Amino acid sequence: MVQNLQPILNVEHLTMRFGGLKAIDDVSFTAYQNHITAIIGPNGAGKTTLFNCLTGFYKPTVGRLTLCSSNQSMLLEQMEGFKIAKDAKVVRTFQNIRLFPAMTLLENMMVSQHDGLMRAAGYNLTGLLSRTALGSELKNGWRKIFSKIGLSYYARLEKEALDHCCFWLDQVGLLDRADEIASSLSYGAQRRLEIARAMCTRPVLLCLDEPAAGLNPRESSDLNVLLLKIRQEHKTSILLIEHDMDVVMKISDQLIVLNYGKKIAQGTPTEIRQNPQVIEAYLGHTAVQVESNNNSGIHQ
Amino acid sequence: MGYFLEQLINGLSLGSIYGLIAIGYTMVYGIIGMVNFAHGEVFMIGAFHAVIAYLVLQALGITLLPVALIIVLVVTIFLTSAYGWTIEKIAYRPLRGSFRLAPLISAIGMSVLLQNYVQLLQEARPKSVPSLIQGNISLIESEDFSVSISYLRLFIIIATVVLMVFFTMLITKTALGRSQRACEQDMKMATLLGINVDRVISLTFVIGASLAAVAGLMFMLFYGVVDFYMGFIAGVKAFSAAVLGGIGSLPGAMLGGILLGVIESLFSAYFSVEYKDLAAFSVLVLVLIFRPTGLLGKPEVEKV
């Protein structure tokens, strides 16, 4: 890809140790803006641990995680958990979906809009007043009074937030089910909802942990389309953990291969497919010889 | 018949007070999974604030009842929520993430501390306030019986209903309510979506404490007597109400409170005043035997 590459995430010498186990061992890489960077590797390679370090679940033992957004760079490893999503705009999804199961789809989405609304509402007291007043018979009179003291601001913000949530629900094809309880959705739909909810926070970096796991072929090709669209239309860079090589090879711009916590390869899908170390990690040592005889890749 | 209805109304107003305190228990349990044993003391402090605020207003010469009540209400809510906020900050937050019993023990310690603190500052003797809201409205007048409701009980019941509507709106319709429910269901995920969980927990304590403050004010109006030990039994009753309704469920807390209040007042009216607590707690035991999650409680959902 010939375009000027701006880094979005710089991982330098990241090491995460659990007692004697090095789950991640001195991993460094750079992910670029508007790229889909896939992280692959066999089970237990440290992929999810890497995500956990990025999003503040774990504090890395060693290393620096720099997020370079538009005009400033932030050190993720030093930020408080909730600020990673709020200020650094890095969000993630989970391998085992984590929705708010007892809330409706729309409420799930609105939670991610929390921050602006909370501030606007002055901790909600005024927001609540303006809300009840807007619904009341005295509509116009009240509205005039509220707009004079700036309370309609909350109502306007809330409408904007609502529109934004509906937009994303629509993008993942769940708008007509907005008022259903999240746990009533099918597995595939829950995955889409989780991605939509993450996108609702207007992230600069979206970390997806096995988004295609458990999806049928049609759902997973829909997912490809969605991810490509997110990258192109919304200027969000994507970091992707995935086992489904079909998804990975088709949509990613750059691959990083981890094995036993170490980075063993980095490159474009074609390069990775032919990398003997990668083939060895996936298929074992003897397979390398067979594979190299056949001179084919690890595709599938 | 008339007697029954009067006792029912009596029970409803007593139950409203229990319910308002119970919400504080149930909300805190819902969000951080701990029983805030100091909540009864927060209620007691609310009642003391109400008494003090009222006496100060009297000394200042503000005797017009509605004005005085509103000022007392605002001052009480404000000061008591400051206590709720501080308690969470110094007694529970540092223990978050430690083993489950640690905040529980800290809560019991806080409860003893607050009792002694009030005892030292305000002396052990009960403080009394003349009954402020007097008069009755006659509801039913017939040849056999008449039912009247005092303005005080009417005030308590109406105030509770208004608070409940306001509170339900807060929880279901606003960003704060949404983030609170989100924290309840999956705190880690809420953090990852940029919600400042610590602040939401603080606000939960503030809301719980302000409802307890209103309950404290109602208690002062209802009985006219406050003392430093009153938080204990009220706290136990309200906690039972929360468990009876299903701990973690907000409508459950209110329902449990009202049930407990009604049972208590009917039992003391028809059987014996001395054993009213026995009746209330027997019902609790019976309900828990047949519905361990409480009346409106949901069975614990396994988090995936």
Protein architecture, described:
The complex is a heterodimer of chains A (300) and B (304). Chain A contains 13 helices and ten strands. Chain A has 300 residues and is an alpha/beta fold. Chain A has two domains: 1-89 and 202-300, P-loop containing nucleotide triphosphate hydrolases (Rossmann fold); 100-197, no CATH class. Chain A has a six-stranded mixed beta sheet with strand order 6-7-8-3-9-10, with helices on both faces. Chain A has a four-stranded antiparallel beta sheet with strand order 2-1-4-5, covered by helices on one side. The radius of gyration of chain A is 22 Å and the shape is globular. Chain A starts with 6 loop residues before the first strand and ends in a 6-residue tail after the last helix. Chain B is mostly helical. The model of chain B has no long low-confidence stretch (mean pLDDT 87). The A-B interface holds A 55-57, 81-86, 91-92, 94, 96-103, 107, 110-115, 117-118, 121, 123-124, 127-128, 131-132, 158, 197-198, 201 and B 166, 169-170, 173-179, 181-182, 185-186, 188-197, 203, 301, 304.
